[in-house]
Design brief:
Layout lengths: L4 H8 L2 E4 L8 E6 L26 H8 L2 E7 L19 E2 L2 E5 L5 H9 L3 E7 L5 H7 L2 E4 L19 E6 L3 H10 L24 E5 H4 L6 H16 L3 E5 L7 H16 L19 H12 L2 H14 L8 H19 L4 E5 L8 H4 L4 H6 L5 H6 L3 E8 L5 E7 L5 H14 L10
Parallel strand pairs: 2-3, 2-6, 9-10, 9-11
Antiparallel strand pairs: 1-3, 4-5, 6-8, 7-8, 7-12, 11-13, 12-13
Helix pairs in contact: 3-4, 8-10, 8-11
Bound molecules: glutamine.
């Protein structure tokens, strides 16, 4: 298949690197640019990695290639995954295919855009706190973040090691069933991927879902999103799915706990970028080591990365660790227990994916860091617990922007999510982006 990726990319800026693929490729895929790839520069949206050509493929990319896939491009993203709108990339900002003045979501924004715009395309995304389902919902495609540990993280440029998950974005629900088994499985290079129940696709059905009152009853969800959520519940009922409201009181602590854990882990991970090992090496080598590192990092890390280094270093400091980091770990346990209780009676928890449709860039520029952190309040809970979650397109706002519906199931129960995605796909008419490639 011939794709004019150059023209498409000029319009949407969804790739940081791309190339033609052989005409006879079995299938074509793209991958978020924090997954290392042999023949493409890999920068994770950061200037500090400019010029980094990894000597190996990340395991999920390797597995897709072994299955006959051709990698056509690396997708644009927030620097190291830090963001919700892909506006924190050092290499341009991906544009929403439904409205070029709006965000694709983040941080896997380029992947969602590629899934929405390219025919027959599947993209590998990565989620730490919602980065697969958020952009999937903003771009009107399916997004699946599997259980933590289902897919190897070998070759992934870490954001938060205890949170990161590699997953899939596609216009077609059937791609989830097709490609999840391809990228899953144990990998000796990633000990957290080694112990896992086998996928049993097609064996489990979604029969009953719970809606956490704390997530949907407060303020903060826009009218359009709420209306489409309510009509989606009607569709679920017509599929004979039982729906009940439940209480999950710990959910309100998920945002503070997540941002403590995520920034703590991120700040240690970023320590390896010092201008001596990977990518960019243009610093003043006459300086002393510490001064060299400081000047190099000041120059090449973006503002959000710097903010997270400060936050994460603080929360791990002697004297503060018990108050912040260790406390956040306890909160994470409490949230897991809340979910587990719900899963004794229900197959999934359902909420809207994002509280609003994709904002315009001028609106995003007026948001504070805290405003954008708060926008993750629906996507962070499944992520902090490592539970698999799925976003399906479920409606469109008055302006025609896509709205997403999110299902979270118990650890290792991706099967019920895939069952839902396929059933949903057969009844809901997913729109193609108005802005044609
Ligand atoms: N928006 C969240 C953050 O900034 C999640 C991003 C992600 O999953 N990489 O941390």
């Amino acid at each position: 298949m011939k794709l004019n990726l150059k023209d498409i990319n000029e319009r949407y800026e969804m790739f940081t690197a791309f190339s033609d693929v052989p005409d006879d490729s079995k299938f074509i895929f793209s991958a978020k640019d924090n997954l290392t790839s042999k023949d493409f520069e890999t920068t994770a949206g950061s200037k500090i990695l400019k010029g980094y050509f990894p000597p190996f493929d990340a395991t999920p990319i390797k597995k897709m290639r072994e299955a006959g896939g051709a990698l056509c491009g690396k997708t644009n993203m927030d620097e190291f995954g830090f963001g919700t709108f892909s506006t924190n990339s050092a290499f341009g900002i991906p544009k929403n295919p439904f409205d070029l003045n709006r965000s694709c979501g983040g941080s896997s924004g380029g992947s969602a855009c590629a899934a929405a715009v390219l025919d027959d395309h599947v993209s590998l995304g990565v989620s730490t706190g919602g980065s697969i389902v958020c952009p999937a919902s903003f771009c009107g495609v399916y997004g699946l973040a599997p259980s933590y540990g289902r897919v190897s993280r070998y070759g992934l440029i870490d954001y938060g090691n205890s949170l990161d998950k590699v997953g899939l974005l596609s216009f077609k629900a059937s791609d989830l069933r097709k490609y999840l088994p391809v990228i899953s499985g144990k990998d000796v290079h990633d000990p957290t991927s080694c112990v896992q129940p086998e996928l049993e696709l097609g064996k489990k059905k979604m029969k009953a879902v719970a809606i956490p009152e704390e997530a949907v009853k407060g303020e903060g969800i826009s009218k359009d999103v709420m209306a489409s959520f309510e009509s989606s519940l009607e569709s679920l009922k017509s599929m004979s799915i039982d729906i009940e409201y439940v209480s999950m009181p710990t959910l309100k602590y998920s945002i503070p706990a997540y941002y403590v854990i995520a920034t703590s882990e991120a700040s240690t991970n970023l320590a390896r970028y010092c201008g001596m090992r990977y990518g960019q090496q243009e610093g003043d080598l006459t300086l002393k080591f510490d001064d060299y590192f400081t000047s190099f990092r000041s120059q090449y890390f973006g503002d959000e990365a710097k903010r997270r280094i400060l936050l994460g270093t603080f929360t791990r400091m002697v004297g503060y660790a018990d108050r912040y980091y260790n406390k956040a770990l306890q909160v994470r346990e409490a949230i897991i227990n809340d979910y587990k209780k719900v899963f004794e009676r229900f197959d999934a928890v359902v909420t809207p994916t994002m509280p609003f449709v994709s904002p315009r860039f001028d609106e995003i520029s007026k948001m504070s860091a805290l405003d954008s952190y708060k926008a993750d309040f629906l996507t962070v809970p499944p992520n902090i617990t490592g539970m698999p979650h799925l976003s399906v397109p479920c409606g469109y706002s008055q302006e025609g922007m896509p709205i997403g519906l999110m299902f979270t199931s118990d650890h290792w129960n991706e099967d019920v999510l895939i069952d839902m995605a396929e059933r949903w796909d057969s009844s809901f008419k997913v729109r193609h982006a108005e802005v044609k490639a």
